[in-house]
Structure formats: structure tokens, C-alpha cells
Design goal:
It is built from 11 helices and no strands. By secondary structure, it is an all-alpha fold. It starts with 10 loop residues before the first helix and ends in a 9-residue tail after the last helix.
Length: 283
């Protein structure tokens, strides 16, 4: 993330300098996504989720999501181009930012699934908070210079940070792991929601199920939080079928599904084909 503009510039110039960066567009995309999610949520709780404003908010949220992840993918591509690095198609697909960008486009063009907005919104909360702390606050209210070395016995003091920035930093640090677990739970819960649509043979539901299953498979291979949620779901299923009141047929069906899922997971493990390469975290 680029540093904030020089504190020696006037406020107007500092803000103009900040607004001309791609990172500011990334920030505005996440901010737009949050506002649209809140606007759609208001329509949803008042049972107006198919109104004109609700549809507009829903679609705009995913346009903003695709744009923000597209900016990150573009910046990563330009960075590799400057150094002459090449990336295989499999490695590109393995990039979490590419996965979220593509999934945002899928949600944009398919029927409304309100739950699909929430994982993106949780990410946006932390991205907006981080950008506000690292760039926006220092641009509007630059840190006060620390005491000179002579006044502190030869030890220079770092500039004093904004109390608001410190509060945001503590919030991000405290709730980051909890939020990632929430995102993982929402993504797995969303898969079951899409599965139910597939079983009801809603229009386009099987295409969506295949696309989202591929996305969840990729998330499982890259996220320890998703792995933990899946493991918990599996343990819960084992506990249910261990009950003596469960018919043997149901128990056998559960273990058959588990076995087939594991085999399918092994076959679709991209790391087997692209090697163990570090994956850029979603931004």
C-alpha cells in the first residue's frame, strides 16, 4: 500500500494526490460495496428485495467487488511485467484475488442470492478500516512530529499517531481471525444454499452450483479457516449418524458422500499440478 502524501503539502493537494491513485479507487470500491450492502439489507428486511433500488444496490455491490479485486489483480500483473516474471494460467487461477473477482462477476449475472453479499462485505469492512488508518487519516491529519533527539537524550521519538488510527488498528488486530472464520462459515453455508437451489432445479442453478463449488474447492485448498469449518461440518455429520436411531442406509449414504467428496477433492487439488507456490491473499 502506497504511503500517504507529504505532510508539507496543503490539505487540498494531499487529498488530490491521494484520489489520483489506484489504491484510492480500490478503497472507494470497497466503500461502495459496503454502502450498497447496507442499502440492500434495508430492502431485504422490509421484504422489498426485488424493488428497483434493491436490484440496483445488489448489482452495484458486485460491480464494486469485481472492480476492487480487478485493481489488485492488475497491480500484481504490472508488478510482474516490470520484473519480467511470467505466470502460468494455473498459477493465475490459484490467485485468491482472481477467484474473488471471477466469483463477483458470476454473482453479478446470476439471480439474487442475498447471502452472497456478506463474505465480500466482511472483507470490505477490514479493507476500508485498514486504508482509513494507513492512508486517509494521515492525509487529513498528518502525525505530529516527535521530539527531537537532543530533547530526548539522543534518542529520536517517532511521530505521534492519531488516537483514531490506533483504535482502528486495535480493532483490526482483535477481530481479524474472528472475521475470517465468519467469512469461511458464510462461504460454506452459501454452498448449501446454492445446493438447495440446484436440487430444486431453479433456472441456471446447476451452472451456479458448479461455478461456486469450484470456488469453494479453491478456498479450501488455500484457507485454514475454510478447512476448519469443513472439518467441523464433517465431525457434526459423523456425530449425527453415530446415533443408533439413524437408519443404516442413511449412515452408509453419509460415509459414501464423504468418501466421494474426498476423492473429488484430491483430483481437483490445483497444488498437485502447479506445485506449492505462495498464494497472494485476497485484498
Amino acid at each position: 500500500m502506497a504511503p500517504p502524501p507529504s505532510a508539507n503539502l496543503p490539505l487540498t493537494q494531499r487529498l488530490m494526490h491521494l484520489a489520483q491513485t489506484l489504491q484510492f479507487g480500490w478503497f472507494m470500491g470497497h466503500l461502495t460495496l459496503l454502502f450498497c450492502t447496507l442499502r440492500y439489507g434495508l430492502s431485504y428486511i422490509t421484504f422489498n428485495y426485488y424493488s428497483r433500488w434493491a436490484r440496483y444496490s445488489y448489482r452495484t455491490a458486485f460491480i464494486a467487488a469485481a472492480a476492487t479485486y480487478g485493481i489488485v489483480v492488475y497491480k500484481a500483473y504490472m508488478a510482474r511485467a516490470r520484473t519480467g516474471q511470467k505466470q502460468s494460467p494455473l498459477a493465475l487461477i490459484g490467485d485468491e484475488n482472481v477467484q474473488y473477482m471471477l466469483m463477483a462477476l458470476v454473482w453479478l449475472f446470476f439471480y439474487q442470492v442475498p447471502l452472497a453479499l456478506l463474505p465480500f462485505a466482511v472483507y470490505s469492512v477490514f479493507h476500508v478500516a485498514t486504508y482509513t488508518r494507513a492512508n486517509l487519516i494521515p492525509t487529513i491529519t498528518p502525525p505530529q512530529p516527535g521530539a527531537s533527539a537532543s530533547a530526548t537524550g539522543g534518542k529520536p521519538v517517532a511521530p505521534k499517531a492519531s488516537p483514531l488510527a490506533d483504535t482502528i488498528g486495535r480493532f483490526v488486530k482483535k477481530y481479524y481471525d474472528t472475521s475470517m472464520l465468519l467469512v469461511a462459515s458464510l462461504e460454506i453455508g452459501l454452498w448449501f444454499r446454492v445446493l438447495l437451489s440446484g436440487l430444486s432445479f431453479a433456472r441456471g442453478s446447476w451452472i451456479l452450483l458448479i461455478a461456486y463449488s469450484a470456488f469453494v474447492r479453491a478456498r479450501y485448498s488455500q484457507s485454514s479457516f475454510v478447512q476448519g469449518v469443513v472439518r467441523k461440518v464433517g465431525d457434526s455429520g459423523d456425530a449425527v449418524v453415530a446415533n443408533q436411531s439413524v437408519p443404516p442406509v442413511a449412515r452408509q449414504a453419509w460415509f459414501t458422500v464423504k468418501g466421494l467428496t474426498k476423492q473429488l477433492g484430491d483430483v481437483t487439488d490445483l497444488s498437485r499440478y502447479m506445485g506449492k507456490q505462495p498464494i497472494k491473499k485476497a485484498q
